[in-house]
Amino acid sequence: MGMNRDMMARLQQMQARALKAQQDLAEQAVEGTAGGGAVNITVTGGLQVQSLKIAPEVVDPDDIEMLEDLVTAAVNEALQKVQALQMQQISGLAGQFGLGLPQ
C-alpha cells in the first residue's frame, strides 16, 4: 500500500511547518527572575542562555548558597516559560492539521 500524492504533500507541509515553528521558537526569548529582580536570566526557546545578570548587592562571599538558590530559581522560571512557548507551538501546529491534543 503506497501513500497517495495528497497524503505525501500533507506530510511534507506538516514537516515544513514544524521546522518553521522550531526556528521561530529558537528566536523567541523569555526571562526568569528571582530575588525581586536581583537575578535575571534570558533564555531562548532553543534553550540557549542569552544573558545572566546578578545585582552586586546579592553577591556575598559569606553566603554563596543564597546566590546559587537565586540563580537556580531564575533559571527554572525561564525554563518553565520556554516549556509554555513550546506547548503553544505544538498546539498551534496540531490545530492547523486537525489534531487535537489532550488537555
Please provide a written account of the structure.
54% of the residues lie in helices and 17% in strands. It has 2 helices and 3 strands. The protein has helices at residues 5-27, 64-96, and strands spanning 29-34, 39-44, 49-54. A hairpin with a 4-residue loop joins β1 and β2 (39-44). The protein starts with a helix and ends in a 7-residue tail after the last helix.
Descriptors:
single chain; 103 residues; alpha+beta; Ybab, Chain: A; 3-stranded antiparallel beta sheet; 2 helices; 3 strands
Strand content: 15-25%
Shape: rod-shaped
The CATH class name reads Alpha Beta
- Give the strand line-up of the largest sheet: 1-2-3
**Quaternary class:** single chain
Number of helices: 2
Order of helices and strands: HEEEH
Task: Let me know the average pLDDT.
Answer: 87
The CATH homologous superfamily is called Nucleoid-associated protein YbaB-like domain
